[in-house]
Specification:
The protein is mainly α. The chain has one domain. Helices cover 88% and strands 0% of the residues. The chain is built from five helices and no strands. The chain has helices at 2-14, 16-31, 34-61, 66-86, 93-126. Helix 1 packs across helix 2. The longest helix is centred in the last third of the chain and has 34 residues, at 93-126. The radius of gyration is 17 Å and the shape is globular. The protein starts with a helix and ends with a helix.
């Protein structure tokens, strides 16, 4: 049972789109709401995208980028807090974290695609 769980986890980190499809499918079966299922799948997949980008960066450059990633995530949270504060909107912590988490989904999706293409081109040119 543990092997199945770890294999699934490794698959979701390697191909985060599968995690999104799986969570969306399960959530849609439970809630019957497309928007709720979409947002839940996006929130869960963000974690897998972050892990995946870290693994790809380690594979390409053989360096760990955990601390720069943590600093980047904190910078995104601070930036979104500043934007909400300047717009005189409610600066609730839950709203800021939710917005930054979904913004990170967009950033890390783009980063994942870019790093996959870059890694493939880099490996082909090495051969």
């Amino acid at each position: 049972m543990v092997d199945v769980f770890l294999g699934s986890l490794a698959t979701f980190v390697t191909l985060p789109i599968l995690a999104w499809v799986f969570v969306y499918w399960v959530a849609k079966g439970i809630t019957r709401k497309k928007k709720t299922s979409f947002l839940l799948a996006t929130d869960v997949t963000t974690f897998f995208l972050i892990c995946s980008v870290l693994v790809i960066m380690y594979t390409i450059w053989s360096k760990s980028f955990i601390w720069p990633l943590i600093i980047f995530l904190i910078t995104v949270i601070i930036s979104i807090t500043f934007v909400y504060w300047k717009q005189d909107k409610d600066v609730g912590i839950f709203r800021i974290l939710k917005t930054s988490w979904r913004f990170n989904f967009l950033l890390f999706s783009s980063g994942y695609l870019f790093l996959c293409v870059y890694g493939l081109i880099n490996r082909v040119l090495e051969i």
